[in-house]
Amino acid sequence: MQISIKLDSNCDQSLQNQIFESIREQILSGQLKSGMLMPSTRILNEQLGVSRNTIILAYDRLIAEGYLYSQKTVGTFVNPNLPEDSLMLVDKKSRKTVKRLKDNEKARLKRYPVAFQGRNQALFNPHRDKLNIDFWVGRPDPQSFPISTWRQLTLKKLSHSGPSMTEYHDPAGIYELRKAIADHLRPARGISCNPEQIIIVNGIQEALNVVSRIFIKQGTPVVMECPCYQGAAYVLESYGAELHPVPVDDDGLDVNQLPDKKTALAYVTPSHQYPLGATLPLERRIRLLEWARSTGAYIIEDDYDSDFRHQGSPLTAVAGQDKHGYVIYMGTFSKSIGAALRMGYLVLPEELVDTARTAKALMDNGHAWLDQSVMMEFITSGAYLKHLRCIRRTYLNRRNCLIQELKNNFSDVKLSGLEGGMHLVWHLPESLPEATKVQQIAQDAGIGIYSLPAAAAYDFGKKGYKERTILFGYSSTTEEQIRDGISRLKLAL
Ligand SMILES: Cc1ncc(COP(=O)(O)O)c(C=O)c1O
After folding, report:
1. What Å distances lie between residue 101 and 29, 30, 33, 97, 104, CA to CA?
2. Structure confidence by residue, pLDDT tens digits, 247-264
3. Which domains does the chain have, with CATH numbers?
4. Whether residue 1 has pLDDT greater than 80
5. Is residue 336 within 6 Å of ligand 1 at its C-beta?
6. pTM
7. Whose CA is nearest to atom 15 of ligand 1?
8. Does ligand 1 have an atom closer than 6 angstroms to the CB of 366?
């Protein structure tokens, strides 16, 4: 959550005073509602770019003067019991209080504070309408969506649906789809599981919510890759997890830096580390599993784009190497078919299945029957494998084209994350400015390329990752667009 605070570096007031005044004024004018949860000092620190200490001091003063109050481990709230006299509307221009609160505003003061605190990642590029060519990360090719098969299967399922459209179904998902996924995962990812271990979810996003619901209370320790997928970090922190970043190097998660202490979960992307693209080597996978055994942690394996392996033989998923039930595996159809389907799956160690089914039922009583039923037929008919074969070829050609164009147009090209997935990483040469500047110059020229923060990556404020790294998604741009885009990028830079 963000609040609007404008800071003026030329103003003669200190930054701390400006923050204090701005929040105080917004409380008095009713803009910040009584009982409202305030953003954490860490969020304000990221938003305003001023030191966290300055924000803490401003908050302390607001608490001391009674405008805010703090509830241990929950957060800081706007005081719902401010004396009536102080709750005046403030005229923005004259900064004078002009009238008392209305009755309905007084009634609001009695309400219980909102307990939820969270932030969500940007799912769309806000500038996309201005772009001619967009290398947005992680989107499948729109032209390749299997529209006619999908239409046929939908009509077929509807005409034989009987009571299926009016009944509730198993919240874990329809059995035939779970079986189809189990049968697919065995050869594709080396995972041997039975359909009962699978729960159909609204994408990995919901899978993360189900697992968080099961494990996380305020302060529960969770290991994260640094940098990591912002979407995962935001879900976990919204449940109160205490996130422990472990650095990522050229081979992915640095397993030697995993903490010794008891940890509930470790969220990892071993197939194609998000965002930097490394594939975790076998030794590190084994070491990660050993670490899970020794600390009792569950590993969350987010296998978001593993359907695309462009070089080297496919690696078995960590869940396929796990013989003791330490891995919670998450898969999605967002990358292989389309993000708008909102469909993915969780593969759970047996002892977690019942709890996860209950958590899923509490969330939404199960995924839509028609979508599941169409997906089941799409997989069992062989259309899914055919579709995968086709887009794998398309993405491989686009990846090769992008690599070639970057090498043709720029000198000293250092790339990573090439082995698989739908995006690659360009480590900027010395001759070019920092990533955010490069992104801006490209954007002004109508080309969308992305620095880590703009591409849903999160680095816990650590230096060294985001400054010189640019991500290129290549799955939803044609080869012609890639050639055109890179030569325009060269001109602009
Ligand atoms: C690493 C990673 N995990 C998960 C997801 C989201 O998957 P879903 O659409 O299934 O929620 C994304 C989306 O970009 C991603 O990059």
Report:
1. 9, 8, 12, 11, 8
2. 999 999 999 999 998 999
3. 15-109 (1.10.10.10), 128-143+386-492 (3.90.1150.10), 147-383 (3.40.640.10)
4. no
5. no
6. 0.81
7. 304
8. no
